[in-house]
Amino acid sequence: MDRIGHIVFLGKVFKVLSESEEWPGYSCGISEQEFKSMREAISAAQIHNPWFTRQAIEHSLNAWADTLDEDSVRSWVSGYDGPNKPKRVAIIMAGNIPLVGLHDLLSVLISGHHAIFKTSQQDHTLIEMVLHILFRLSEEWKERIELVRGRLQGHDAVIATGSSNTGRYFEHYFGKVPNIIRKNRSSAAYLTGTESEEDLHRLGKDIFQYFGLGCRSVSKLFIPEEYDIDRFFKGIFEHHPIIEHSKYANNYDYHRALYLMNDDSFLDNGFLLVKEDSNLHSPVGTLHVQRYSSQEALREELESVGDELQCIVGQDDIPFGESQRPSLTDYADGVNTLDFLSAL
């Protein structure tokens, strides 16, 4: 079975779904009925999970489409041989952003193992759409992929993603088999004061994409001691329509009221609360900021919290606006999933 070819094809379908309202013809690789069914799945995902707006889903599909080009996929798996004996790898997926569990599923499949997985209740529709595409390509995928509704059983290894609380449960329950267990992580960005207005606008994408719910969403911003925060507010202003989303607005209103009741100091531009706080993770609708005295002090601070960070955005790190477009080798928590799977 052409595993690489099928995964590359998946990316091409994602590209069509992210860019086309109407079926573009057989040249896209799927029939008109299949296209309509997939668009219906996207609509169903929006209804099931209000955080999964059309924009959020199409951004995820487009990012995956760009990632799953043939050169990238072949480079990703170069040097990896299939297992001597395929193992049954259980995957427990998160559901905080659209298709967040897809990388784990593709890693297991491209490595030659069997995937037994549970989707999050928040993101089952889109993952099932992916299965439909794969099953269409080959009956063999049906033998290697099992979607489980109840209890996971008969697995040789586990990849589980959840909160820090569920992570402790996962460690207890799955500790006897090889495992990757992921817990809460946050992402941070830093400014030097030399950024352009366009840089700041792009930083807004890192903050507001997926409403800040992803582990790669910037929830903490480091700024120089003398930095004028009004520059930052001006740069992100074009993102103000986010406040029109009811669930985001509810979070924003709740934390604004909470800060007022607690007499906390914060800044408010009408769609984002900015609060000086050393905590890396900030609630939806809020951004924590922390001032630094020098580049050396900034680097020391970032290194001290490195185990809690998913990624860092800034001039010498991930470019502004790119945090939500990871490559196939940008592994969650920095743990190489293919290395883990190849060692089973």
Give a short synopsis of this structure:
This protein is of the alpha/beta class. 43% of the residues lie in helices and 15% in strands. The protein has 13 helices and 11 strands.
Which whole number gives the mean pLDDT? Answer: 95
Radius of gyration over all CA atoms, rounded: 21 Å
CATH architecture of the largest domain: 3-Layer(aba) Sandwich
Count of individual beta strands: 11
If you consult CATH, what is the topology of the largest domain? Aldehyde Dehydrogenase, Chain A, domain 1
Overall CATH class of the largest domain: Alpha Beta
The SSE string, one letter per element, is: HHHHEHEHHEEHEEHEHHEEEHEH
Q: Can you give the helix content as a percent range?
A: 40-55%
Name the CATH superfamily assignment of the largest domain: Aldehyde Dehydrogenase, Chain A, domain 1
Specify the overall morphology. globular
Report on the biggest sheet.
6 strands, mixed
The count of domains is 2
Contiguous helical run count: 13
* Spatial order of strands in the largest sheet: 8-9-10-7-6-11
Cα separation of the termini: 21 Å
* Alpha-beta content class: alpha/beta
Low-confidence stretches: none
**Percent range for β-strand residues:** 15-25%
What does this structure look like?
The protein is α/β, with parallel strands linked by helices and 344 residues long. The chain folds into two domains: 3-183, Aldehyde Dehydrogenase, Chain A, domain 1 (3-Layer(aba) Sandwich), CATH 3.40.605; 186-313, Aldehyde Dehydrogenase, Chain A, domain 2 (3-Layer(aba) Sandwich), CATH 3.40.309.10. It is 43% helix and 15% strand. It has 13 helices and eleven strands. The strands form two sheets. The chain has a six-stranded mixed beta sheet with strand order 8-9-10-7-6-11, with helices on both faces. Strand 4, helix 8 and strand 5 form a beta-alpha-beta unit. Helix 1 (3-19) packs across helix 6 (124-137), helix 2 runs antiparallel to helix 6 and helix 9 (197-208) crosses helix 10 (229-236). The mean pLDDT is 95.
